[in-house]
Every structure is written in structure tokens, then in C-alpha cells.
Amino acid sequence: MSTYKPLQQAFLKITTPFENFIHNQTTTGIVLLFATILALILANSPFADAYHHFFETKIGFSIGSWKVYHTLHHWINDGLMAIFFFVVGLEIKRELLVGELSEIRLAILPILAAIGGMIAPALIYLSINFGTPAQNGWGIPMATDIAFAISVLVLLGKRVPPSLVTFLVALAIVDDLGAVMVIALFYTGDLNILALLYSMGFFVSMIFLNLIGVRNYLSYFILAAGMWFFMLDSGIHATIAGVLAALAIPSKPQSNPLHFTQKVRNLLDDFDKFPIATDMTMHERQKAILQNIKDRIDSISSPAGVLEHTLHLPVSLLIIPLFAFANAGIRVDVTTLHEMLTTPVAMGVMAGLFFGKVIGIFGFSYLAIKLGIAKPPQGSTLKQIFAVSFLGGIGFTMSIFISDLAFEGNQLYITEAKSAILIVSMIAGLLGYFMLRTLSNKNS
């Protein structure tokens, strides 16, 4: 009889990297929702001042005459979010190497859909705000929140074909790549060339370590920290350092996986030669064999894969919810809400995320399929792709992040943009969910 409890058995369940990715994104979506609700409650309660003052608290350190002090809000957005972008970079890299984006035949549809889903929202926003001080916010409605979008599909379970989930994941990954490029190219301050050169020096050093086969995590961590530090003063947003670090991390294992099976099988045979004591204590030789097996497992695991798996949980349960808690706390005044949501900024964001995403994602997908450039996801219909395109309108994390960059120093525009993001994301998510549910009922 097994000594494991059902909960322990659940933890021992074998899942593929893709299944693990979906699970992590779903967990993120749930925790993110609670963090957002809590932030909104506090920002509209008698504790509002304490809430805002808390994130404006300055923390840092000094070494002699050298001092680094920033607000807690700044450390979260420029520091912790660099780790989030590092994981995003690892996800993009995995998808390009071995995932849905590794075969152009399968990747062409989500790539085109993502491109359409970025171009159309930006153009719609600009059509409303072009020539005004708010035109710099065109990047806000371009982003899709992968965690919330996937969570909606997961709620539908078997009502949607698995290929549709894969399509949305691939689309969102390309969308993330686009958002990273937009931040790096268009939302930068005055360049500090010297700091940028220092930062690139650390990046090149990481690439060099990769090329000569170094697999020591500490070495990469030290170099990545140095790159982030100088990127902070370069004028390019520091989170880009996270993406660059991910690209430099080795994706190939140290040992050949083809030799792994036989060697481990031989070790397991040696392990079984020693009887297990009644108190479940292992022989010293067995402990040595287990350590040898662990070392061999580590040698066929790529550093990029290990880091992505290791960091997903703290990023999902701590960093992203903390970002939401620090940034989603906007004051909602019912008497002025209508006035706020009819400003050019809010209308541009809402129209971009709601109409732009649908026009771009579905429009480009429809044309690609009808022209024979791509095929629809297996077992799915054009109507389901249309419904999924509404989920692309869930902007949230990346959209809120870009809002702070686009309107830095203009709190009114930031509040208008964030209010619009929260409302349209909720509407788009609910509409996409009920459309997909209705379509599944008709097909059943």
C-alpha cells in the first residue's frame, strides 16, 4: 500500500513543460485577480493614503559616498519586473526553439494574428489621440495578458479544442515579444551611451560563457545583475536586461540525452541490490547512487529550462501579483467615472483593446486562412477564433506597465489609461468566455 497521500500523489504527477506552463499561467491569473481586487478596495477605502504612501517609501543602500535609493514602487517596476521579463524571455526562447513557434508551418497563423493584434489597436489609438500630448500611449492597447487570457480558456475545459489553447499561447508569446521590442525601441529616455556600453559588455560576457560551455548559474546571475544595474541608468528600461539575459542563458544540456537512459537504468539496478530497512533508511551506497542519478539528470537539463521551471512559481505567486497590487490601485469615483472614460486616452485604450484586437487578430487570421497561407487550429472553427480574439483584449499586466512608461510624470493620463484597461479587460474576458461557451453548447 502506498504511503503517499492523494495530495502528495498530485504533486508527483508527471506533466509536460507545456502543461506546466498552462498550469502556472492559470495560477497567475487567479492570484492576479485577487491582488487587483485588493488594490482597488484599498485605494477606495479610508486606508487609501496609507496604501499610496507605502509604495512611495524610499528604500536602498549606500556604500561610502555611493548611494542607491528608490521608491518601493520603482523597485517593483524596474527591479522585480526584470525577473518577470527574464521569464518572458525564457518562454519566448523555448517557443522559438522547441515550441509552437519552432515550425513556421504551425507558427504562421498565431504570428500573423499577433501582428494584426498589435498593429490595429495602435492605429485605432492613434486615430483618436494623434497630434495630442497623449499620442505616446499608442503602445498601451497592443499588449495581451497571457495569464488572464489562458485562465479564461482553462475555465472552459474540454469545451474548447486543445489546439485553440495552443493557438492563444503562441499568439500571446509573439505579442509579448512585440511588447518587449516596443518598450526597448520607443519607450526609452535620453540614452547614456557609457552606461549602455557597460551593460552590453556584461551581455556579451554572458554570450561568451554560453559559447564556451559554462553552465554555472552563479556566473550568469552575477553578469545579469551587472547588466541590469547599468541598463537602469542607460535610458533603456531596465526590464529589457531581463529579456537579454534570458537570450544568453544556455538552452542545450551539458550531456547527451541519448546516453542517459541506459546509464540510469544500470544505476537503478545497482540501487535495487540493497534491501530497504524497515524504517525506510537507505544504505550509504544507495544515497551515493541517487546523487549520481541527480547529477546525470542535471547534466541533461538545460539551464534555460531549469530556470524557467524554477522561477515560474515565485513570478506567478509573488512578483506579478505584487506588481498588480502596486499599480492597479486607482481611485474610482462613480460620479466622474463616465467623464474619465470618455477622455481621448481612455477611449483610445478601450477602442484599441476591444475593437482593435478583434479586427487585428481575427482579421489577419481570416485572411491567412482564406488565402491558404495558414490552416485553422485543428478541430476549431472561424467562429471560435473570432471569440478567442476578444480574449486578446485582456491587456492588464503589460498594458499597465506600458502606461507608466508612456505617461511618466502625468498621473492623470496614467489613471485614465489604467481605468480603461481594467474595465475593457473585464468586458473582453467575459464576452470571450460566454461566446466560446455558447459556441461549444451549439456544437455539442
Give a quick summary of the entry:
Helix content is 71%, strand content 3%. The protein contains 18 helices and 2 strands.
Description:
By secondary structure, the chain is mainly alpha-helical. The protein has 2 domains: 16-187 and 237-252 and 302-443, Na+/H+ antiporter like domain (Na+/H+ antiporter like fold, Up-down Bundle); 259-273 and 280-297, no CATH class. Helices cover 71% and strands 3% of the residues. It has 18 helices and 2 strands. The protein is globular, with a radius of gyration of 24 Å. 41% of the residues are buried. The model is unreliable at 1-14 (pLDDT under 50).
Descriptive tags:
single chain; 444 residues; mainly alpha; Na+/H+ antiporter like fold; two-stranded antiparallel sheet; 2 strands
- Number of domain units: 2
Please identify the structural class as seen in this structure: mainly alpha
- CATH class of the largest domain reads Mainly Alpha
Radius of gyration: 24 Å
Approximate shape:
globular
Which series of helices and strands comes N to C? HHHEEHHHHHHHHHHHHHHH
Architecture of the largest domain, CATH level 2?
Up-down Bundle
Which homologous superfamily in CATH is the superfamily of the largest domain?
Na+/H+ antiporter like domain
Helical region count? 18
Largest sheet: 2 strands, antiparallel
Strand order of the largest sheet: 1-2
Mean pLDDT: 86
Low-confidence stretches: 1-14
Helix content: over 70%
Q: Which percent band covers the strand fraction?
A: under 5%
Distance between the termini: 41 Å
- The third-level CATH topology of the largest domain is Na+/H+ antiporter like fold
Number of strands: 2
